Amino acid sequence: GQNIDQPTEMTATEGAIVQINCTYQTSGFNGLFWYQQHAGEAPTFLSYNVLDGLEEKGRFSSFLSRSKGYSYLLLKELQMKDSASYLCAVRDPNTGFQKLVFGTGTRLLVSP
Amino acid sequence: IAGITQAPTSQILAAGRRMTLRCTQDMRHNAMYWYRQDLGLGLRLIHYSNTAGTTGKGEVPDGYSVSRANTDDFPLTLASAVPSQTSVYFCASSPGQENTEAFFGQGTRLTVV
Known about the structure:
The complex is a heterodimer of chains A (112) and B (113). Chain A has 112 residues and is an all-beta fold. Chain A contains no helices and 11 strands. Chains A and B meet through strand 5, strand 9 and strand 10 of A and strand 4, strand 5 and strand 10 of B.
């Protein structure tokens, strides 16, 4: 089975940096995804990690340590529009390559 | 515009009624999924299809059925709706390769009364 843990809620100030952690326990591993979801909208893809290390994409970066079952999403220069839920998801190898198992998400509130 | 479309956007349904949520994608993706999203529980997989003609059960399949007659369509049917099926339902698709992300439809908000 899969177990994915994220903090429920975080708060930060506009212009700051925030790190959202995700830990997972899986029988196998085929990659970890981060999604952003604004209230009332669909999740949208942010990043993908399958090898250890940091992937940078503009203001957003994602880190993976497979040996520790750990990932984080780093958001820099926070903007009000970054207020959203951030979902960590692990690809489940037990059904082939395609199935994603999601954590419950971290709600980020950015204040002025 | 290429993408994934769900219908209806929202629905209020009487308990015991049958309902089909529609999902269509025009990206020729092999894999499609149905998730439900409930407060505090996150996205939970109901059913999935790795390719046309095949389907599989996810974490919470009871009370739901799916079919995948072709690549583009993946309808989700509630045979006899119950109030616990009140949720937001998201359809998603992905090309099928292991390093590719899933694309989500805009969601269907279903209320069973």
